[in-house]
């Protein structure tokens, strides 16, 4: 199975991130695509649901529900995955990840690749702009989300 | 801060695992302890909530809610953490993990230790017995939970 995703799928993840920012939340969105079809979208829910585990990728996987296999899935995420989301991708057997940008947070791309996951980084200015707006407006929430103490 | 937890805290995690098995769910429980005080308990909710991300440790961290720091926290879990839960422990900055047993699933203890997390494995027969009962009764659910296709 090829690395099948479309710009529309990236748009959906970015729209989820933007919707989260509009709610005062962390603007990280994700989309799960299987065989070229969108299965689920999600975004970080730390602020909205008071749930520190609901990063964009985790929320998306939760919204997708139970699946027998992720072997043909592509995870699209607007920001480089943190250690938790990287671990989820590895554990679930997702083999392809599309990252909107990795400049505002470098994540665990090395760990992903070391476990055989194909990673594409888009360096998308719109994804970066959302994160820069958020980091400037809510530095304490951002620190909390990545496990740092200001 | 010392590696502070008590046998009572391990009992709470094991009781959560047993409660999950009684519901037909995956019998993995977790407890979060800060400064010797129990903050939250959780257990795997894949079957109960149809949520593949709700492993015991994730459910426990979700139940604990937002926290500024996990530097003084101990995560107790009845089974060796998978890659997702290992990543969560690393990302959240939890530095001490107590594992009930690592025989029925070896998890990612090496990754945890490579990131500086202190890990104690209890080799608890009661935790192992819960997993062995589950693996025999529900092999397909167990395969799904660890990302394997039977």
UniProtKB/TrEMBL annotation, chains A, B:
Signal peptide (residue range): none
A single GO BP: nucleobase-containing small molecule metabolic process
Segments forming domain CMP/dCMP-type deaminase: 4-119
Transmembrane domains' residue ranges: none
Alphabetical keyword list: Cytoplasm, Hydrolase, Metal-binding, Zinc
Pathway entry: Pyrimidine metabolism
Location in the cell: Cytoplasm
Keyword Cell division: no
Protein's UniProt keywords contain Cell membrane: no
InterPro entries per record: CMP_dCMP_dom, Cytidine_deaminase-like
GO cellular component terms listed in the entry, alphabetical order: cytoplasm
Summary of subunit composition and partner proteins: Homodimer.
Protein name: tRNA-specific adenosine deaminase
